[in-house]
Amino acid sequence: MHRVGSAGNTSNSTRPRKEKRLTYVLSDADDTKEQIIHHCAGINCLAVLKASAPDACDYLFTGSRDGTLKRWALTENAATCSATFESHVDWVNDAVLAGNNTLVSCSSDTTLKTWNCLSDGACSRTLRQHTDYVTCLATAKKNSNIVASGGLGGEVFIWDLEAALVPVSKSAETMEDDCENGIISAGNSGMPITGLCSISSASSISLHTTQSHGYSPIAAKGHKESVYALAMNDSGSLLVSGGTEKVLRVWDPRTGSKTMKLRGHTDNIRALLLDPTGRFCLSGSSDSMIRLWDLGQQRCVHSYAVHTDSVWALASTPTFSHVYSGGRDLSLYLTDLTTRESVLLCTKEHPILQLALHDDSIWVATTDSSVHRWLADGRNPQKVFQRGGSFLAGNLSFTRARACLEGSTPVPVYKEPSFTIPGTPGIVQHKILNNRRHVLTKDTAGSVKLWEITRGIVVEDYGKVSFEEKKEELFEMVSIPAWYTTDTRLGSLSIHLDTPQCFSAEMYSADLNIFGKPEDDKVNLARETLKGLLAHWLAKRKKRSGQQASANGDVASKDMAVRNHSQSRIEIDGNADSDSMVYPPFEFSTVSPPSIITEGSHGGPWRKKITELNGSEDEKDLPWWCLDCVLNNRLPPKENTKCSFYLHPCEGSTVPVLTQGKLSAPRILRIHKVVNYVVEKMVLDKPLEGGNSDGTYAPGLPGQSQLATLGGDGSFRPGLKPWQKLKPFIEILCNNQVLSPDMSLATVRAYVWKKNDDLVLNYRIVQGR
């Protein structure tokens, strides 16, 4: 598993508070809606919901490392995605069905979320209690209100969903006080928040409700290390947990008290199963062993050496007579718990993460984004053994490994799955190109693609070519500040924007092919990207507010104005348009829209597609600096965007000396503007009076035209011809290298000058050009 840095500093530290980040996750759908439905990363969990009526269909729920869950309507030879559950901001690690209507999921974002499993995918509640990744869940089949959760923090909590999800009417002030530590709704601020419990006992629980009408889950405390597996009996009277401590702990979930500790495994316990009565327990471990425990006798009664590597997934037949097991060795086995007879059902190309029995088939989830259904004869498993190829499981972990080395590897019963729900290849390698608008990626299928991140689309699919060779081929000698960061932990490109760094990159409108703007207008890449991402939100917001937007305060309210002035200086982007027009280089697809991951002042992180924002989101939901940028046209104070340089004649040249001091210009200024400046100075022979010591010129004084030309704001002296047609022809050099007119000062400094001191440019006349 991976760890995710915190979104901000929530402590009482005197250090400056880190502002909330905005992330957008790109989707590669190739403009076809069919591809949007598939997962793009490994499948961590499975859950099957049987039809409640004869004419209804069964459903399969899948939870993925791409951060989403999906509901698949199953027929004999088809699976249709009927809903995507999107709210988690990190891997979905486990999911269970609590009754016929509630789906509960847990994630590396430290939360549990509840969903109406037959709805369109809206999250009904977010439960915040864990301090680290939540890795596993367990539920009681006959008591659908009870769900247990465990995580890397060694915490185990038992939730009463009926109590936890009871709507509570609270004032806005109380909600703001509770948001930091409570169980919160994923919806608007009017939804209920309940409190947390504090834990003080080493082996039991201590209930403390922060609000008289709040709810606190039961905390079963005893694990000193990470918890990776949980199991609960049907009635909810027994809970078993296991993890990196290599022991099984048995709890009474009604009180949180520990009843026993069982030793036997020599490595991390990754999977647990309880029989319906709670008498027998099966455990799978990274020591490659499966163990059967008699909880009444408090001992291990059988050990099964079936696998040659870690056992990560277990599923039993309804009678608990046979167990299906899979893991890191890519193999799925069926074992008779009484006779110890085992058979290899199939082998995969990827490690097996979870199993779900479905009538006479079994669904298999792996680190791949596809889900496969294999024949399993779950209602009559003896039929599988009649096919032959079985062996007796040993009771020592090295017996299967030794048999494998001796060439007696079993032959799988099945070669191909009976059905597959395909996934989309996940991105495993990426490189941000120098232009800072394109990212080159490689996916698990070996395809190399070029993304334009300011539009969120693939602009070129190169197929299965060498990533390194394509990276070299696309190299550009251009220098633009790193205004975003990216990762691929969710199987897709995640673009992270952090203020104020994200506002450091600018380009001329001509370089972006933006028509209708002066070619020398500077365009802030982050600002325009934010406008594109929030265009749907802004349109719905305006529709909601109507003509009363200003009367209602918009987001530029007194509260926000106070916050802006108290936390940082803000600059008005004078070159930016005051409207919300989105230019073509920043228009995001509505067929495969990106998802936003962010958080505001309250409620914690959330995730939603940009087209699903309803316009009601405000500073409580979105970072204030994003809203200030999009609504108020205000950007944080810019760092030094100027480049200082000297402009001298080439050595031995007879051209006159035009400047005596240091010049200063925007870093994105093109060399052809420097050529214009030199020609204008030479042709017009303007004196240098009025110049400042830094080479810029005061407004209204002689020399202002040089500032206009050098500053690149598009205001040229009347009658001045374009630089390409000026004679005599001027060349600009740096380190004796002739510079391309399209190079920027930043590029020259980074790739030609390569020094920390002030840039030195030289000019000369080239005759006969």
UniProtKB/TrEMBL annotation:
It comes from the Eukaryota. WD repeats lie at residues 127-162, 220-261, 262-303. Residues 556-572 have a biased composition (Basic and acidic residues). The keyword Repeat applies. The keyword Repeat applies. CDD domains: Ubl_WDR48, WD40. Keywords: Repeat, WD repeat. SUPFAM superfamilies: WD40 repeat-like. Residues 1-20, 544-575 are annotated as: Disordered. InterPro entries: WD40/YVTN_repeat-like_dom_sf, WD40_PAC1, WD40_repeat_CS, WD40_repeat_dom_sf, WD40_rpt, WDR48, WDR48/Bun107. Gene3D superfamilies: YVTN repeat-like/Quinoprotein amine dehydrogenase. PANTHER family: WD REPEAT-CONTAINING PROTEIN 48 (PTHR19862). Belongs to the WD repeat WDR48 family. This is WD repeat-containing protein 48 homolog isoform X2. It comes from Nelumbo nucifera. The gene is LOC104585918.
